[in-house]
Request: fold
Amino acid sequence: MDEHLAREVARGLRDGRPDAWRALYDAFAERVWCLVARLVGPSSADVADVVQETMLAAAHSARTYDPACGPLWNWLCGIARLQVALHFRKVQRQDRFKSADGLAPHRDRLARWLDGSEDPPPDLLETGETIALVRLVLAELPDEYGTLLTDKYLDGVAVEQLAARNQTTETAVRSKLARAREAFRTTFLRLSHSSTDAEPQCGGVP
Reply:
C-alpha cells in the first residue's frame, strides 16, 4: 500500500467508511495471517481464530487510529500481537508444555544464545515444547522487540537488511537486538521456570 493510499484509508477509517475497511483488509489480511502463523504455529487450527479476532479488534478500534503514531501496518501488527498474547493466556499451561521438564537441561545453552555468546541452537528450537515457549515469549514482548527477533532469528533477515528496512544503521540494529535478546531471555527464563514449577491443575499464564 503506497503512502497516498495509506493516508486515504486512514482518513476513511476515522470517518467510519466501509470501503476504507475493505481496502485495509485486502491490503493486509495475508500479512496478518503470516505474522500470526509465525507466532502461533503454521499448522495450528488456532491461526484462523486469532486472525479473525485481530481483524474484528481492528474494525472496532478503526476510528481511533492516528497516523501520527505510525504506519497502518504497525498499528495492525500491534493488534495482532496482542491477540496472540491473549490467545496464549487462554490456553492452559499443561496443554502447551506437556513435557516442559525437558527444557531444564538446555536452559544454559538457550541463555548463552540470548546473551549473544552462542549461535541459535537449531536442535532445541525444533522441539515442540521449546517452540511453544518461544512463541509465547515473542507474543509477550514489546512489538519492536518481538518483530525484530522474529525477523532476525525465525525469518533469517540479515542485519544490513533490517537496517535498510528501518532506515537506521547496522550498529543501531545490533544494539536493539542486544536489548531485545535480554528482554526475551528474562521472559523466557521466567516462563520456562514457572511452567516446570507449576502444579498440574494450574490454568492460564499469569
